[in-house]
Amino acid sequence: MNHFQFQNGTLHCEETPVSEIARTVGTPFYLYSRATLERHFKAFDQSFGDIDHLTCFAVKACSNIAVLNLFAKLGGGADIVSGGELFRALKAGIPASKIIYSGVGKTEAELRAGLTAGILMFNVESAQELERLQRVAADMNVTAPVAFRVNPDVDPKTHAYISTGLAKNKFGIPIQEAGELYQQAAAMEHITVKGISCHIGSQLTLISPFIESLVKVKAFVGQLNDQGISIDHIDLGGGVGITYDGEQPPHPQEYARAIKDELGDLKATLIFEPGRVIVGNAGILITEVQYTKSNRGGENEKKFVVVDAAMNDLTRPSLYDAYHRIEPVMDQGAAHERVDIVGPICETGDFLARDRELPRVEQGDLLAVMSAGAYGFTMSSNYNSRPRVAEVLVDGTSHTVIRERETLESLINGEHIPEYK
Ligand code: LLP
User: Does residue 198 sit in the same domain as residue 338?
Assistant: First the structure.
């Protein structure tokens, strides 16, 4: 359930009319609901309330420090994949002791930053990363807490670009080769073996792939224990899907029940890295219609609604052919027509929706692109020299700009014209 609902034909975010925010903030902008963010975080976290666990929000899904701060206040940790995300998580008030660091390409500077902060663990993805971490930790005279991210070779049955747990994907260490690395790590002076991690993909709508990989991880943890290597943190990654358009992903409670059943008497702190399931339906993108036009060619007349948001603001439709529901902010009961909703960028791939039935809209109307809270703003760019849009957080009847719209000046920040001789 989310707090974006129509009241008297006008879209509201909690108790605030979206059109009112558009009037003061301008368009386009991302809009988040505090009540929904908190509700979704708690729904996930409390599903595991009866067992030892830590919910580390996947910062990449939505990294505004105001959003991260809400989760910090609810006891959440963070799953980060860069030094930038570490910086944000700490700024937002997430304790280092609740931060885990994933990703295949951590630089030396990033490892150093994680060690300086004192994070909970590094999810190491290769033998070379382990060696580098040992060297950096030795240099700093500290001990690095490590989990290995294993690749269980399980098909998550999701979009190919966001599937990560197959042998052909770049992620993790093949589970059959990981034992050797655990042995090496256990013998390293500046490494402490802390856990194991595994993340098989995103937007999963089935529980079975999660369980399939847990079965493999559990068997492997048993082998490690037999070899005298104890694993006290098991990180099961993120990946529970959401409804964009009729998908029926498992409810977090169902997911939790299945995990707990499979876990049996295995004793460890469970770590989760949910992103999309918490923020996806807690944020929308508001855009204004600039023009409507039709291109008549043969019998295929095509109608276009040109809006002021584009693929640089929300890249998911162009990149993954992803579906986002689109609603007029003022529902005036207009007749429907089939349109493409496109942005101003000079590429045919710049669309938010294609061949979509939409109530007839006119110049100046506002549209809401739904389910845009995850991988929306965080994947936005300045392509076509478009300043990145504002982010706004609603709390009941009030709203706060939690990230200002970029200015033209900010577009060229740090650029220099050389002084030619
Ligand atoms: N943990 C790790 C190691 C990950 O790589 C990811 C997502 C997550 C957790 C969070 O997964 P979630 O709970 O959000 O499914 N840009 C794509 C999604 C990329 C996901 C990358 N990894 C999209 O817009 O669909």
Answer: no
